[in-house]
Amino acid sequence: MLDQVFDADSLYALRAAVAAHGLQAGLSEGRVMDLVMAVHELAANAVLHGAGRGRARIWNTGEALRCEVTDDGPPEAAADPEAGPRGNDAWRIDPDHGLWLVRQVADQTSLQPGPGGTVAMVTVALGPPGGLRPFHLAERGQDSCTVVSVAGELDLRSAGQFTRAVGELARSAPGLRLVLDLSDLTWWDSSGLAALVIAQQQVSGHPGARLVLAGLPGHLAQRLRDAGLDGQFTLARSTAEAIDSFNPNTT
């Protein structure tokens, strides 16, 4: 889909090209933003740690977009002890910094240093044929708990609606026992993941209120672990298990 060389002065053009190809491939607006951020961070590292330039290529596999960013590496780096570290030592992955963020928004990442430079790859999954299920929230009461079912994709467009709904519940129901039934959640982008974190903060900010995530699909549970955020939430395999967790003495 894309084969483009870049340097420090053309990163803006690369971002525009990646966004255009992401939209053409059918990614949602939020996922396009994630893809652009990931490729930009990889390209910026190629400029910083390589010879000031690099090459970006994107393939559409039908199931995902595979994005490869390479830096040629200065040819004198291997012979020059003052040139500094190469590969993984040069492309550092520190919490809350560029490459760490890339790992949070991409579905798969790899970083392969070599004598000729570093090859970085990210993969972003495409939605199912015919489009994603529309986002939908449904609220019900069950056994002194409030259950909110979340269906579809939690993304840039739906994150605001989601956080407003949770915030209103947290403010209006003292001692809220909130179960988020995520069994029909198909995907999230970085905005959706941030919305879950905000929801947890909204609920925990009220004395006696608790939030449990129920039925999180396996691929999203893995994404949560990869992001290092699973420890911020209470997880349950099902809505029934989540409700039981509020009543530990129930048999």
Helix/strand layout:
Layout: E1 2-7, H1 11-24, H2 29-49, E2 53-60, E3 64-71, H3 98-105, E4 108-114, E5 117-125, E6 136-142, E7 145-154, H4 159-172, E8 177-188, H5 190-204, E9 210-214, H6 218-226, E10 234-236, H7 239-246
Parallel strand pairs: 7-8, 8-9, 9-10
Antiparallel strand pairs: 1-2, 2-3, 3-5, 4-5, 6-7
Helix pairs in contact: 1-2, 2-3, 4-5
Jot down its keywords.
Transcription Regulator spoIIAA, Heat Shock Protein 90, 35% helix, 251 residues, alpha/beta, elongated
Report what the structure shows:
The protein is an alpha/beta fold. It has two domains: 2-125, Histidine kinase-like ATPase, C-terminal domain (Heat Shock Protein 90, 2-Layer Sandwich), CATH 3.30.565.10; 136-246, Transcription Regulator spoIIAA (2-Layer Sandwich), CATH 3.30.750.24. 35% of the residues lie in helices and 30% in strands. It is built from seven helices and ten strands. It has helices spanning 11-24, 29-49, 98-105, 159-172, 190-204, 218-226, 239-246, and strands at 2-7, 53-60, 64-71, 108-114, 117-125, 136-142, 145-154, 177-188, 210-214, 234-236. α1 packs antiparallel against α2. 33% of the residues are buried.
